[in-house]
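Write out this protein's structure.
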Amino acid sequence: MAPQSNSESVWASLPEELLDSILGRLASMVDFIRFSAVCSDWRRIAYENYRNPPYDPRCRHQLPLLMVPTPDSSTDTRSLYDVRGKGLYDFRLKVPYHRRCAGSSHGWLIFVHDSYQVTLFNPFYGKSIHLPPIRRLFFEKRIRDEVDEMSVLPHFEKYQYEKKLRDEYDEEEEEYVPDIDEIVFYSDGEDEGDELEQDEEEESRDPEFGPERFHESEYSVVRGVLSTNPEINPNGYFLMVIYGTQSRLAFIKSGDQHWTYIDKSICDQNVRDVLESGYVRRGLWYRRDIVYRNGLFYVLDHLGVLLSCDVKTNLKVEKITGLDTLHNKWNHKTYLVESSKGDLLRVNRVIEDEYSYEMTIKFVVYKLVDFCEDPHWIEVNSLGNDALFLGDNHSISVVASDFIGCQPNSIYFCDDCDDFYNHGGPNDIGVFNLQDGCVRRHYTLAHSQRLMPPSIWISPTVL
C-alpha cells in the first residue's frame, strides 16, 4: 500500500465521531460521493454509514446521472452531468478502462476487453469484478478473420471447417444447408429473388449488419443487465448480456466459471411466425433490451416478441408476446423498461438522418396489458409522473416528483453504441416530452469529446 500524503493523513486523522456527525447531515448521494473521494479512510466510513442506520435509506434511490468525457478529455476519469440544470459536478470519477461501456446497471459499469473477458466496475468506490470471457465471441472473430480463406472452399468443406470451429468454442450447432444456388424461395406464388437481393444490399448498408459495429471487442456486447447490486448479494447475482453479430443471449451467475448460452433453438420461438409471415430477412428476431423483474429476466426483440427467462435453476424460456408490426424500421431503436408502477413498457425511438448524423425526433411508448390471459402491447400517450432514462444503460424509470427539476412524462436519452461507432461520435443527447412531442437538447459534447468513449447513464451508489 502506498503511503498517505501529508494532506490525506491530516483528513484521515479526524475523529470518526465527527465524520459520522457530518455524514448524518448529508442529504444527497452526490454529497456522499464527494465525502468518500477525500481519502480512503473517509470512503470506508461513508461506506459503513451508508450500509447501516441511521443513514436515510431513501437516499439510496437517486436520479441517474450522465457520465460524460471530462472537459479536458481525460483517458482515466469521467465527469458526471445532472439533467436538472445543475451542469457538471465539480469532481471526477476514476474509470481505468478507456473504452465503451457495454452497459450500466445498479451503479456498475460493464466493460468487454480484447480477450472478451467481462469486467464489472463500480466507479463510486473503485471496485472491480472480473468475469470469464464470452468464448463464443472468439468464434465470431475467427469467422471474420478467416472469411476470405473460407470463401474459396467448396460449400460442404466450408461447413465442415465452420463446424470444427463451433466445437472448439462451444458454439451452438447448425444443420447443414445446401448451397443457396440450389434453393428457390417463393412467397404467395411470386419469385422472391429480387427481394432477397434487395435485402442483402440493404444489410450491407445497415449498421446493424455491417462489420464496423463489431470490429472492436468493446462493441461485441450491446447490452448488459444485472439482477441486483453485486455488493448487496455477492453470491446470488446474475448478469445477462446481448452479445455478438446476431444479438444473442448469455448469462452468468456469481461464482460461475463459464457463461451459459441461450441457443437460438431455445430462444427463437418466433422463427415460425417470421417465416409464415413472409419475412426472410436475416436477423428479424434480434434481441434489443433486457429488464429484470420479479425474479425473471425479460427480453424484447426488434419486432415486439417478449421472452421471459428463468435462470435461477433449470433454464426456462417462455414467449409472452408474438411478432407484430408496431416497429418495423431498422434504423430505429427499441427499449424495454419497467415503470414505477410495475408495468412493462416498450419504447420505440424514432431516428432520422440530420447533417450526416442520426438524431432522435420522437419516441412512441407501448404498455403490456392482459399479461395473464392475452398479453399484447397498446400505445400510451403519457408516462404520468414517470421519467425514463434510455441509452446503452439498463433502462431506468424514476418518479420525477421525487427529484426537483426532473421533468415528468419525459424520456431522457443519449446515444447508444451504433450511433457512436458509425458516425464519428455521440451527438444525440436530449429529452423528449410526451405532452408536447418536442425534443430538447440538454447537453452537447465538444467535437473533440465525440471521439471519446460514449456517454452513459449511471445510477449513483456508494454501496
